[in-house]
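ok trying this again, last paste got cut off
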Amino acid sequence: MKKNITEIKRNLIERLFTILHRDYNECTIYTPGIEDIIPGANGITIKRLENYDYKTNKTSLRYKLHVVTINDANHYDWETTIAKFDSLDPDTRAKLERFINAKCDNAPADMPTTCIGHAYYFTLEGGEKENKSNNKNNKAMKTDVYTLGKDGFKRLSEHPELPKGTIIRAFGACMEESTWATTGNGDEIVKLSPNDSESYFSNPYNSLDEYCRPISEKFGIGFYYDLDAPRATDEEIAQAIERGNNFIKEREEEKNRAEEESKRAREEVLQKYGAIYDQPSGKYTNAVLVAKHIRQDLTNAFPGQKFSVRKADYSTINIEWEDGPTREEVEQIVGKHERNCTPDRWNADLWDYNDTAFTSAFGGVDYIFYYRETAPENKNVSLYTKPEPKQSEPAKAIKTEGIQIINYSEKAIAIIGDTRAIKDTLKTLGGRFNAHLTCGAGWIFSKTKESTLRNALSI
């Protein structure tokens, strides 16, 4: 009986997890040779997903297998999916199945049972190595590192001791290349190429990974040593260090200027809007507070129009309404509650979200989605009409005969007397009735409201 796609995929993934002795539910494996089957690929990501069914009290497993391009040797989870196993044609799936099984067949027979790994490298711990510390009881573990290459698993060794001035080739995203050199201070390297804040490796100093490879074994983003290139001279290294130190100093000064400007802009926003919006506190999550602010804005801008403003998750707000104003009109009012969103320079699949002066002061969300229900022909037509203001009734005279305002304490005043006729007014003005005051029953107010009360009651 022919196996279906799910069975093939499950068998492949289970075999990979078993041969690697993995207890984790996900790993990415650098896999040279796979590009011969699927152009542009250099790795495999495997995922094992557990799904618990509360009704049957059973756990089921789902599997995902993606063929990927690993973009960064130092940040192993930076990968771009080239193809999902399920979407491959039968012939390609069969080739991939044979390829993975061949890798597993070539795995070392004496591989230890503990495998702690990440992409490209599988770190196998066991045995002891020379103890370099003064503590005789401190036994360091011997570490063997493997990578999954064209001929199965290959054991890696630490790079040789690199003399001062050894040229290091760096390869970043978007085909970026730069030249570095060892400084003679352990694995420290300094940038010989011009320094640039927008560069992939923007820091003028870096440190080589202990399993750094020669340039002849280049496979992706990272640093590679070049023993065939003429070494950098002491003078060139000294100049690079001086440039690097100046660059770090200038960048720090620029950062301080930006922070001062951000602080000044935030203070201006607080001064302008501080009396209108609440600032984030422990009472609200950002999205809850932002939803409250958006409702407030929409009520003031479009009185009479009904809106549904809901928090979708911790950083998303959905706004829905029928007919009324256009999306552009609504966005113009509430768009200030959304953080700045810019595409990541090195990975088009990622976005960076940064606070504006407004969102840093009053909270913000990453996404605001607008859903307007209207006829297609009215998509760009505003159907909102501001309601006519209601005719206000003449103000009733407030009788205050026999009512007094007295100092009750250092911070409070009290209104005493027959206040039954004006109790609603006093409540609206923020008063609190207390029948057990030392001066007799009355209304308590903060002293800051005394002038407001005297004007309202004409006392």
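PB: full thing came through this time. Residues 72-77, 112-142 have pLDDT under 50 and may be disordered.
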